Write the structure tokens for this entry.
Amino acid sequence: MKYIHLKVIALNIFMLLAVTFTMRATTNMLMTIIPVFTKYVINADVLDVGLTATLAGIGALISNIFVNGKIRIDRTPVTIFSFLLLMTISIFFLIFSSNIYEVLVLSLASGLSMGVVQTLLMTLITALAPRELRDRYIAMFTASLSLSLIAGTLAQGLIVKYINVRTAFIIFFFVSLLSTLIMLISSRRIKINPGKSKKIKFSDVLSKSSTALKNPKVQFALSGNISYAFPFVLILTYGSIFGNEYDNINPSSFFYILAAFFFVSFLTRLYMSTHSIKRKELLMYFSFVLGLAGYIIIGISSYYIIFLIGLIILGIPHGSIYPISSYYLSNSVETEDLNIVYSMFSFIMNIIAFIIPFVYGLISKLYDLRIASLSLSIPMALVIIYSVISNIKGNRSLKRNESLN
């Protein structure tokens, strides 16, 4: 009976990984093709490019406030399906968009979906996985994210090079539709014990989020992830434009380079999913150093090869920081509170994700892209320092508690 139960769990998680693959390929397309479409098809300026990412971030923030933290764990599957459907509809209308105002509205709509789907998929997989296998399933989830980014980005490069930018919306509309249909089937299969069945109030969300934020290990995970948001968000939003301006890299070639970045990330996550990483915090520290170094290298690059080296270096922390952060979060709370804590995590990341592109775009408009890149390396370094300090405090607190017991 236990064997059959584990097989059902494995099948459900396999289907969710298929949703993860198609969903993440689609969201990456939205985050990288929309800036290229905005800049080079409808000829908007660099600040408008940043506004598309900012509005997507605001949409994600709104969905976090009103959806994520309030969804009971047993209603997670149908919620994921609903927002995947919204994403698919948004892409359909992007196919026919012709001005910046339409793109901005559709960026907001797609952001509503992006703010819900990935967070709830992580929650669902974590809730379904047996506790002793949770670390491994989280690594599989993040590896699936990386693999989808490689395939999706290579497809984008081919589409942009041999057809045109707008066609990417058409092709990924069908990818998003497939993701939606798989999730529809999964939502009818998956049954989860809701635990405490009372309605989740906003005050409960604030209370439990506040409690979680006082945990030094949660602070370590959160600030670590925030530090990597600086290079990652800017690469997706402005990477193609920066490469074209300073390194003579056309948008289609940029997508091939970006695929190399995601491939390194995938290898990192694949290694983590097949090996037991005992000193996770040391890997996190190493990832911080690589993240800051890679970002600065890209900021000062003037040649194709330097840009490529910077992106490859950044691939390692992209592969390691998110799963390590997720590990610390998932082991800090009870299963029925996962939605609340992950939504708090995603909520803060969404704020960062819409602030960074806007600030970068504003500095770029006033000065240039290079100054904007190097300027934002300073707050990135400060966040890294805070993350390390939080972890040191957490370790001291654990040792103190062990000595008392």
The chain has a mean pLDDT of 87. The radius of gyration is 20 Å. DSSP finds 14 helices and no strands in the chain. Residues 2-191+204-399 form a domain with the Growth Hormone; Chain: A; fold (CATH 1.20.1250.20).
